[in-house]
Each structure stands twice: as structure tokens, then as C-alpha cells.
Amino acid sequence: FLPACRFALLIFFWTVLLADSFGYAASAASDKLSLEAQEKRAAELYKELVAADSQDFATIIRLHRLVIDHCPDTERAQESVWRLSNLYLVGYDKPDHAKVIELMRYLIERYPDSPLVPHAKQRLLRSYEDTGNMEGARLLYAEAFSHNPDLGKNPEHAAFLLGYAKTLAATGKKQQARAVYQQVIDYGDAVEEWLRDIARDALSNIK
């Protein structure tokens, strides 16, 4: 009797729990504001942001998060993601790259057509490099080259090539790294000598 009773109670418990969960999800979906209401709420929150003390980071972060969470379909939400990343990047003694990465990845994934996406990818790339995530950085470099095959043919992008080569070497793709470093060297006088020196030094250090 007892095992059967416990089993029945367990079934009842999970039934109630699942019902509550589905009810919460439905409620959350129904609570989403219309675009018009989101625009109005975002405008209100930005008025508060303008009035906030520029050094009151806690309030600024809270207000931007409210815009992002409650007004996700507005351009203000995209702006808030970007502005928050600015704060985490330069607002403190040391950049909070973990937060910057989180925000930039969210912006890229949530708003793929946003005009901020190219800037977000560049910022994400730098944060990956600064935190030693060379594989993440390499993938972003590779994506840039795949979208613009002529990128590596322009000496003006020599510094970008050096960054790409560094991530290639760091992720074990040494042959490709050598080729990219050599490409910078082969630019000759079309690029500054110090850039070629970096390429030569890096090339000699690849074992």
C-alpha cells in the first residue's frame, strides 16, 4: 500500500508542478508588451537614464536591463545592449570582458540585421583576444575573410592579417599562420616596416 501511495503522490506532485510551469510560461508570453507599449516604456526608461547620475552605474545598468528585458523589439533595446557593453568596457578600472562577450553575443544572435552587428563582432573579437579565447577570435577572423575575400589582398588590412595569423598559430593551424605572416612580409613597402617586423618575428617563432 505505501509504495503505491507514494507513487500516486509523486504523480500528483509532478502533475501540479508541470501545470504551474505551463501556466507561468503562458502568463509570461501573454505579459509581453505590444510594440507600441514597448516603445512608450523604452522612452520612459531613457528619460530616467538621462536624469541618472553618470557615475551611478548600478542605476544605469538596472535601467538598461529593463529596456533590454521589457522592450526587446525596439531599437532602444539594441542601443541599451551596446551602451551597457561600453560601460563594462571602459566604465571600470578593468574591463569586464565576460559581460562584454555576453552582451555582444546576445546582440548578434538576437538582432542579426542590426547595423550594430559589425561593430559588435569587432568588439567581441577584441574581447576574445584579450581573454585568450583564440579559437573564438579565429572563427570571427575567418568569418570576416569568408564574407570579404578581398580583405587579405589589401595592404591597408595588414594589421588585421597579423591578428588573424596570431589566432591561427595559437590554435595549432601553423601552416596557415605562416602563409598569412608571409603575405604581410610580401607586401613590402606597401605596409609600414614595423608591421613587417612583427610578421618576421612571429614567423621565426612558429615551430
Reported for the largest beta sheet, the result is: none
The total of helices stands at: 10
Share of residues in strands: under 5%
Q: Given the C-alpha coordinates, what overall shape results? A: elongated
Extended strand count: 0
Order of helices and strands: HHHHHHHHHH
Radius of gyration: 25 Å
Oligomer type: single chain
State mean pLDDT (0 to 100 scale).
Answer: 87
Which spans have pLDDT < 50 for at least 5 consecutive residues?
A: 1-30
**Helicity, in percent?**
over 70%
Structural class: mainly alpha
In whole angstroms, how far apart are the ends?
72 Å
What topology emerges from the helices and strands here?
Layout: H1 2-30, H2 35-51, H3 57-70, H4 75-90, H5 97-110, H6 117-130, H7 134-147, H8 158-170, H9 174-186, H10 193-205
Structure description:
The protein is mostly helical. Helix content is 76%, strand content 0%. The chain has 10 helices and no strands. Helix 4 packs antiparallel against helix 5 (97-110) and helix 9 packs antiparallel against helix 10. It is elongated. It starts with a helix and ends with a helix. Residues 1-30 have low confidence and may be disordered.
